[in-house]
Amino acid sequence: MTSNDQTFLQDLRLRWNKLQLLLNEQNADACLIVTGVNLYYTTGAIYTGYFYLPVEGEPHLFIRRPAGISHPQISYLKKAEQLPDLLKEKGFTLPQKLLLETDELTYNEVMRLCSIFGDIQYGNATSVLRHARMTKTPWEIGQFRISAQKQAQAYKKIKDCYRPGMTDIEFQYEFEKECRALGSLGIFRGFGSSMDIFMGSILTGENAETPSPYDFALGGGGLHPSIPIGANGSLIRKGTTVMVDVAGNFTAYISDMTRVFSLGTLPYIAFKAHNAALSIQEQMFKSARPGRSCADIYNEAYALVEQEGLSAYFMGTIQQAKFVGHGIGLQINELPVFTPRSKEFLSPNMVFAFEPKFVIPKVGAVGVENSFLVTEDGIEKLTLFEEEIIPLD
Length: 393
Hints:
By secondary structure, the protein is of the alpha+beta class. The protein has ten helices and 17 strands. The strands form four sheets. It has a six-stranded mixed sheet with strand order 4-3-2-1-5-6. A five-stranded antiparallel sheet has the order 11-10-12-15-16. The longest helix has 20 residues, at 6-25. The protein is elongated, with a radius of gyration of 23 Å. The mean pLDDT is 95.
């Protein structure tokens, strides 16, 4: 455990209790957690080993490395094959139904664990954990507030990062330096195999239209075929926009905010689309509350897009993303997701990013993204920074 703070430990218990309720719903006896993000969620630490949570009672940590982690329920082990004997030694009854992170572990890892525990029932812990992480605890919400405030501090420095004649990647280097100086952890995590990225994305001009294989709202060609996303070395030219979508990873809990900057005079269509994005956000802010369907929120947003005659530019041009918002947390793409067919509903203590964006050919991307907390009777905006298009010159 990385903290002895009593508030933090109480918060961990809230997460364990939430997971245990979900285990009970699955008629599972326990779950065994291996992956780093889920270990952090359940223990406050990332280590090589296992976290065993029974459906009732206290959990136990089984650690290979590093040495020196402090926690009341710890056993050190050398290999996974020791798990059944160690569980018995600690007074646990071996499970008859065990949940494993089958959406995240390799096939070999799953098969190894199944061979260790033998001929019992197995289920998918990944879906249970993602469901549990969809609503946040008080301590987690506090971490979002820290990240959001620091992210706003960083965004205030963006104009000072620009110098005439810069490329998008040179501009990004300067901004990432400012973020790191303010305490950015330098990495953020995504769920799924096609979510590789650095600290975030900066798109200017025509590069905003470039489609990417990755599951982000907008693409960009990137600097190399091995990571085809984001800035590609384009010169920041007059008459174009610069969209800054760099993560607020100042704690493990990621705030998400996008702002648009411009160089020179932009065409009318860019301002029309940007104002439409702000209107979509305002419409969502007024209607979002516990019980609202995420699909309804998406469809209301798209209705406004069509009303403004901007559907050809919404969430891309050559390739258009089919969502307008997503949950955030330890990973950038948590639940819920705001899509036309989402089956999820808002509930208190969800934290999500809402990002109505447009791409104007040869000009660049416009729009806005903010992070929101669902409260008992509405939503609260966490990322507070000016939202109009901001001139760099």
